[in-house]
Amino acid sequence: MAALQFPTPDQIPADVRPNPERYENRYLIDGEIRIWGGPTYEVKSPICVRSADGSLSRAVVGKMPMLDRNESLAALAAARKAWDHGRGAWPTMRVARRIGAMEKFIDLMVKEREEVVRLTMWEIGKTRKDAETEFDRTVVYIRDTINALKDQDRQNARFVMEKGFIAQIRRAPLGVVLCMGPFNYPLNETFTTLIPALIMGNTVISKLPKYGALLHLPLLTAWKECFPPGVVNIIQGDGPEVVGPLMTSGEVDVLAFIGTSRVANILRKQHPKPNRLRSITGLEAKNPAAILPSANLEVAVKECVGGSLSFNGQRCTALKLMFAHKSISNDFAHKMAAAVEVLKGGMPWEAGVQITPLPEDDKCTRLRALVDDALSKGARVLNPSGAQFEGTFFKPAVVYPVTPEMALYHEEQFGPIVPIAEYESESEIDHFMRKSAYGQQISLFGTDPKVMADLVDALANQVCRINLNSQCRRGPDTFPFSGRKDSAEGTLSVSDALRAFSIRTVVSLASTDANKQIVGDIVTGRMSSFLSTDFIF
Ligand code: G3H
188 alpha carbon to ligand 1 midpoint, in Å? Predict the structure, then answer.
């Protein structure tokens, strides 16, 4: 991989320059877009700019508020008021009108596509192609969620007759949901909890991720215009200062958190009434790939390069350890090294770019320490430029052979390192999964049906998705996305998420003529939103 050229200011194309002053330092509480008068922080891009003397500095692309405890509690008060013990305008609104609000939101959201894409490139270094895909995938997710809700509503519109009872069973909202998304999919993963929570009738506080916050600001007007005050509140600040008070208040009903298990544990423990809190989480993973002796190496290399290095390996679903059978491990590792070495590094807006600068503070130093630990214990970096770094740019490194003594064997690197371990018996892969703190997904590469079948059976109760001859991934978003152990709690997919943010509620009565008359009058008189046979196509 050729040396990366960070741009000088005049080398940044005019059409990608962000316009942060348009949005900076804003947040949304109780239907008001507010400008914060207190402390702020500079949003520093992973993209460094080179000055005339050759030194590098991270571009500053905007300013975000560091709200305080009081303002955070104001967001909670607004969300609770809009919930109003389930009697608020939004939680009692008929499904058709909630869907109408969401459709209006989509119309306004798509107008901000270019601005959000531009900010995604600057804030987290995602390539233009991937930033566009994230935006478009999110819009499709919202539309799919609307369709899934219509399906659910059609099912719920019918009355059930069972053992002398008439009943109507619907899914009802849970209350106030705190949504926190991660930096790697700051729009998509925030919305994959926020949207289903909202459309089910909950009210929401969204605390933005540390990196990938500014890109939410172009959407504040759309939130404000489409939903009643207090239904959506968007805040930002230091976690302990703004999230701590929300959790310790005991007034958050659902925690939807995508991030680390360490933070998830802290947040859950802060809630004084744990029985009342529902948690939906997506946490770490150390998804392995097993390259079996029978594997088609061309397929395995292509999938493992994409699986381990898409968005620089910063995906919870990324392949983070490749197990290659001893009979083919050397060949596989060198083919991987050759494929990784020619990946194009550059700025997110450059055509065909695959590897980009990393947003997390000191990330390159931490990645280099993981590589050095492996080198000190007998591994090698196989690709010539691997693990070299400058500023925020780390050249992807194929490290081989990785063994259980090395940190890279166990730790989630969440970055552009491709560790390859050798194995002799399939039981070593099973053993790795048994010992692992995580249980999200695995990829198996091979062509021998018997060996594949045995491994599927050995692993099916240890992970939540087994990918045959393909990399690990979340999509299609209609598939269930979950994990065992420290990888997740709950399941997210378009339809599962609607269930996660709601609870089944029943209205039931004995099937007598008098009762049938009452229900009939309620339904034909359209007196109730719950007891109703209305549905939408
Ligand atoms: O970071 C975790 C994401 O949910 C992964 O999604 O597999 O579509 O990249 P993806």
Answer: 9
